[in-house]
UniProtKB/TrEMBL annotation:
Residue ranges crossing the lipid bilayer per the database entry: none
GO terms (BP aspect): signal transduction
Full protein name: TMV resistance protein N
PROSITE patterns: TIR
InterPro entries per record: TIR_dom, Toll_tir_struct_dom_sf
Annotated ranges, domain TIR: 34-181
């Protein structure tokens, strides 16, 4: 079967995605229990209420299953177990780099695990340049030599991966969300192929940046 692929943002309208409160609650529970499509690696203090949070909601409304720690974890969950399981089961990762990202051992651990499990990772550089990413003294003093090696290797790999850049103060938020969502969908299709196309048909998700049929 051929699949229509009109531009993502142009088809993101209330008339296309009819969301009722009971349905939204059911979908949220399914997202928590099913393997995630996209793991969002981020520094909560910088981007939980902005880039990471908005991207999570945007991808969820499109029918995908993103993982964001503040949305998918509940009291009593073991932090490392829950996150490590989500990373191992995800299809791709999104690494949201921000000015204080490298001050967090948790962020660096997640990034290292994404790279070590050979996940496709989309870097988003928010108010920070790739050249500015380095393990800080704050993390350096609390890690073993092996951990530091993992973190530095992961950052180095991220620096040489084509990603997106965004200026939170002056950037166009709607354009950014469209571009980031398109990048996620395109990478999911490259990684998963026909499986993602079937899910797109089932969930009425439209592929980005093309009006032709596959």
């Amino acid at each position: 079967m051929k699949h229509a692929i009109p531009a993502l943002a142009k088809n993101f309208a209330v008339s296309t995605y009819k969301v009722l409160r009971p349905q939204t609650q059911t979908k949220s529970m399914n997202i928590c229990t099913r393997p995630c499509d996209v793991f969002i690696n981020h520094r909560g203090i910088d981007t939980k209420r902005t880039v990471a949070g908005l991207l999570y909601y945007h991808l969820s409304r499109l029918g995908l299953r993103p993982f964001l720690d503040s949305k998918n974890m509940k009291p009593g969950d073991n932090l490392y177990n829950k996150i490590d399981t989500a990373i191992h089961s995800c299809k791709i990762g999104v690494a949201v780099f921000s000015p204080r990202y490298c001050e967090s051992k948790f962020c660096l651990h997640e990034l290292a695990l994404l790279m070590e499990t050979r996940k496709r990772v989309i870097p988003i550089f928010c108010d920070v340049k790739p050249s500015e990413l380095r393990v800080t003294n704050l993390v350096n003093g609390s890690c073993s030599a092996l951990e530091l090696q993992r973190y530095e290797a992961a950052l180095q790999e991220a620096k040489f991966t084509v990603g997106l850049t965004f200026d939170c103060a002056n950037g166009d938020w709607s354009e950014f969300l469209q571009t980031a969502s398109d990048a996620v969908l395109e990478n999911l299709i490259e990684v998963e192929g026909e499986k993602v196309l079937d899910e797109i048909d089932n969930n009425q998700i439209y592929l980005p940046n093309d009006s032709k049929k596959l």
